[in-house]
Structure formats: C-alpha cells, structure tokens
Amino acid sequence: MKKGVMRPGHVQIRVLDMDEALKHYVELLGLIEVDRDDQGRVYLKGWTEVDKFSVVLREADEAGMDFMGFKCLDESVLDNLHEGLKAFGCAVDEIPEGELKDCGRRLRFTAPSGHDFELYATKQQTGKWGVGNHNPEAWPRGLQGIKATRFDHCLLYGTDLDKTLDLFRDVLGFDLAEQVVTPDGKRVAQFLTASMKAHDVAFIDHPEPGKFHHASFFLETWEDVLRAADLISMTDTSIDIGPTRHGLTHGKTIYFFDPSGNRTEVFCGGDYHYPDHEPVTWDADKLGKAIFYHDRQLNERFLTALT
C-alpha cells in the first residue's frame, strides 16, 4: 500500500577532492551546480529535475554515501511516516529546515542494511534547468558532457535484506519489483520501487553493513549511453563495465568511477512496475546474466569495489 513516498530526492556523496569531483559530476556527467553552503558542500541537479538539487557532494577523508533522501507528498505524510518508523523500531533524528539549503525538515533513520536514509516533503522548486514550465523547449542549450537528465536510484550493499524489505514495504510503502533468490529461498538482491520505475533503491546482501555501490542517472536513449562511453574514454575515466544490458530491469547501462572511487551509472530504458505486478525473480545461479545480460558473468570490480 502506498504511504506517500514519491521518489528519490537526493543523495549526499563523500568525495576526497572537491575540485576533482566537480570535473566528474559537472564536466563529465553533466550535472548543473546550483549552490554551495557554509559547510563547503556543493549542490547539483540534473536538467529535467524540478527541485533545486538532487546530489550533494561533501569533501571528506573517506569516500562513500552519507545518506539517500526520499521526497514525500506533504508534511502530514512526513508526520505519519515518523510514527511508523518509531513503531517499527527505528531511531529517528529530526534534521531542521535549512540544514540542507532550501530544503525543509528531514527525518533521518538507519535501515537494517546499515544505510542512512531521509524523508522530507519540502524543497525549493526551481524548475527544469534552462527550459522552465511555460512553453518549454525540447532541451536546454549549454549542457555539458553526458547530459544526465536526473538522479534515478542507488544500489547499496548491506546486511539483513529481509528486515530492510519489511521496513521499506510495510512502513514506507515500496513494492518489491525484482529479486534474486538462492535455491534455499534466501533473497540476496532486492529492487524496490515507490513509483512505476523498475527500482528507486536496490540492495545486495553483503556481510558488511552500509556499503555504497553506485548512484545512477537516467539518459533518454541507447545512443546517449554509447555517447557516454565515448566521453568516459575521451577523459580517461576509470570504467567498470559496459556499455551493456541488464537482465534485471532490462536497462541499458555503463558503469564508471569518480576520482574518489565512488561508482557512477548512467542508463536508459528499463522495465515498469504497477502495484498488481508480481516480483520478477531470478535464480542466484543466473546472477551473471541477471546483472550483465550479454556477458552473462560478473566481473570482480562490480562485486568488490564498494565505498
């Protein structure tokens, strides 16, 4: 049952060198810098996003993800979810309005997987960059690099997938869209959605909690993914794998690394999900084909390069 969570809203990523990170996220990926704050954080967005920002970069001594935030319909939904989180047993920190620039109050909690998540309902809306909402053009001029359209999802590695699913499904109203299951019935991967998308967040079973695998950004076409591959090579950016197709979700994809070692994905296409759809299930012995449909085998970096 839907509980009022709409979509992924933002992710805060730790980077080791801000200037180098901005070359990756702005000049290569094509996000737009929209603001900075007195903590030194830099705020970015994809050009189709109506909210002010979706990516926050924070310079730190260790790479990884600080938190992922989901936007809710309104403030009353936030209050209801606060009660649900407490009833589930989550400790909830109330982050005041303005701690992220032009963002309302946020509720932060730790999932059983070991990852920090946030819920919020209010953020300044600045509209689609360069085109607006009134008689908009097809796309804005002046975009850089890969021209990422929006922040789409994160893939996270962590512990206790069953309780994490209980939290996201029963408290937050997500659906299980796709899963990978072992012969003895253990779910080792789960793709969760609060919308019609194939996934808004995904989890892989891992013995160490709270690990970050990648943040993903949407492109419009397969040609855009191939162009991204060219730009990744032109800039001598470290590549993980691709261009290729997933079996899971069927998106067309390429993975590469920022200078701090955080993995980035850009992809196009992918399945859709309605609440009456049964979860798509992959057998664990088909995981190679599920992840990389063409090669049908996993590379070592994809499994072990985590931040």
From TrEMBL:
TM region positions: none
Pfam families named in the record: Diox-like_N, Glyoxalase
Assembly information from the UniProt record: Homotetramer.
E.C. number(s) listed in UniProt: 1.13.11.2
NCBIfam families reported in the protein's UniProt record: catechol_2_3
Single GO MF annotation: catechol 2,3-dioxygenase activity
Superkingdom of this protein's organism: Bacteria
Natural source organism: Marinobacterium stanieri
Record protein name field: Metapyrocatechase
Similarity remark: Belongs to the extradiol ring-cleavage dioxygenase family.
UniProt cross-references to InterPro entries, sorted A to Z: Catechol_2-3_dOase, Fosfomycin_Res_Enzymes, Glyas_Bleomycin-R_OHBP_Dase, Glyas_Fos-R_dOase_dom, VOC_core, Xdiol_ring_cleave_dOase_1/2, XylE-like_N
Cofactors named for this entry: Fe(2+)
Catalytic activity from the UniProt record: catechol + O2 = (2Z,4E)-2-hydroxy-6-oxohexa-2,4-dienoate + H(+)
VOC domain mapped to chain residues: 7-122, 150-269
Keywords linked to the UniProt accession: Aromatic hydrocarbons catabolism, Dioxygenase, Iron, Metal-binding, Oxidoreductase, Repeat
